[in-house]
Amino acid sequence: MLLKTFGWSFAVTALALAAAVFYGGWTGFGIVAILAILEISLSFDNAVVNAGILKKMNAFWQKIFLTVGVLIAVFGMRLVFPVVIVAVSASMGPIEAVDLALTDKDRYQQLVTDAHPSIAAFGGIFLLMIFLDFIFEDRDIKWLGWLERPLAKLGKVDMLSVCIALIVLLITSLTFAAHAHQHGGAHADKAETVLLSGIAGLVTYMIVGGLSGHFENRIEEDEEREQEAQGEAERTGKPRSAVALAGKAAFFMFLYLEVLDASFSFDGVIGAFAITNDIVLMALGLGTGAMYVRSLTVYLVRQGTLDDYVYLEHGAHYAIGALSVILLVTIQYEINEVITGLVGVVLIAWSFWSSVRRNKALAKEGSDDPADPDKSRAVTGT
Q1: Residue 186 pLDDT more than 60?
Q2: How far apart are CA 15 and CA 192, in angstroms?
Q3: Which letter does DSSP use for residue 110 in this model?
Q4: Digit-coded pLDDT (tens) for 20-78
Q5: What span, in angstroms and rounded, lies between the C-alpha atoms of 209 and 100?
Q6: Is 367 helix (H, G, I), strand (E, B) or coil?
Q7: Does residue 194 contact residue 117 with C-beta atoms inside 8 Å?
Q8: How far, in Å, CA of 196 to CA of 160, rounded?
Q9: Number of helices (H) and strands (E), helices first, in the chain?
Q10: pLDDT at 18
């Protein structure tokens, strides 16, 4: 079962790591491994959400998601999108950007380094919005209750996430401008670019979130109409085709999943720039991680264990929040890439350990509903 589900991921991992050693030596091997772990840790909640929607689709659309969807996710967002980021930020064509990355690494490195403030501002604000929207939402199950309860109350204020993100962006850009002028003004002209890039990250998040919400609403509307139609068919004695029921909403489910996957892949792609500027290693690492996310989605659907480890989603979002701060800090200061990569892993491991402890405590209490929020709070003290 495990080999059947993760077989392709294992094969891609072996090929990617071998290519990394051939391309960048053991340093490249380590960077690709960290990027793959980062992508998996940041996208675990994506796999959980995907699995929850995928199990509602018929076999045909599940296959479409796991074939065409993989092409879009792995080759589109994880391979093409980093090229687009570099091309836009460095004002060059995508082909030229790829050619430069392969033939003139020193110049490419310099161009990416010069563009890093705008890339970090865009990504930092985008990731910050994901984190803020998560912690300001009131949830039945809370991991760090002492922190999440008051934040959920604050979240009732309209547009609070946007306001905080804009304040953080303004402080970051002003601090960057002051720092640049203080040290000779080498990047003083980029202060405005940092501000505009951060706003672009905020706008991108709101567009992606709006599209995801639109498709989610369409799915709910279609499900309601299908249930009404099914009830009418039962009353008239003319049952509807199961294929029609599955197919009518499935297309919108597929579109919603792709938009959702794109929104989650931004954090991995943008976060990768905090670890390496080498586009080849980035593509190998993120592509490998994306394969595991897809395999994990299938595994969760087949095993039906979506609610076993309820704090993993919290851990993933706290990792996103930490990464957003790191990216914004790297606009001015250099942070070791190993530290950046391991922050997410530590937070995910902590949330997993907390989930295991919670499950053991619930089992000891004799609970027959491990997802019961009231019992969760009673056992964990959150």
Answers
A1: no
A2: 42
A3: H
A4: 999 888 888 988 888 888 777 666 666 766 776 777 777 777 778 777 777 777 777 77
A5: 34
A6: coil
A7: yes
A8: 20
A9: 13, 0
A10: 92
What value does the mean pLDDT take over residues 70-87?
73
Structure tokens at 46: 């994506």
If phi > 0 it is left, if psi is from -120 to 50 it is alpha, else beta; for residue 289 that is alpha
The DSSP annotation for 271-335 comes to HHTTT---HHHHHHHHHHHHHHHHHHHHHHHHHT-TTSSTTHHHHHHHHHHHHHHHHHHTTTS--
- Least trusted range by pLDDT, from 80-94, 152-166, 275-289, 343-357: 80-94
* Dihedral pair phi/psi, residue 33, rounded to 5°: -65, -45
Query: Can you tell me the distance from the alpha carbon of 53 to that of 48, in angstroms, rounded to the nearest whole number?
Result: 9
pLDDT, one tens digit per residue, over 340-371 is 667 777 887 888 888 888 888 888 876 445 44
Name the more confident of 382 and 352. Answer: 352
* SS3 category, 201: helix
Q: In 10 A of CB 214, how many CB atoms?
A: 14
Task: Give me the residue label for tokens 């998996």.
Answer: 40
Distance CA(237)–CA(300), nearest Å, equals: 36
Q: Report the alpha-carbon distance of residue 172 to residue 195 in Å, rounded.
A: 8
Tokens, residue 328: 């914004």
CA-to-CA separations, 373 to 151, 320, 378, in angstroms, rounded: 18, 24, 9
pTM across the whole model: 0.70
Task: Work out the angle at residue 83's Cα, subtended by the Cα atoms of residues 78 and 85, and round it to the nearest 5 degrees.
Answer: 95
**Count of C-beta atoms within a 10 Å radius of residue 280:** 19
Single-letter residue type at 161: S
Whole-number Å distance between alpha carbons of 162 and 355: 31
> What are 94's two structure tokens?
């995508």
Cβ-in-10-Å burial (0-12, 13-18, 19+) of 330 comes to buried
The three-point CA angle 283-285-290 to 5° equals 90
Answer for the pair 382, 145: CB distance below 8 angstroms, yes or no.
yes
CA distance 62 to 106: 44
Q: CB count, 10 Å around CB of 145? A: 15
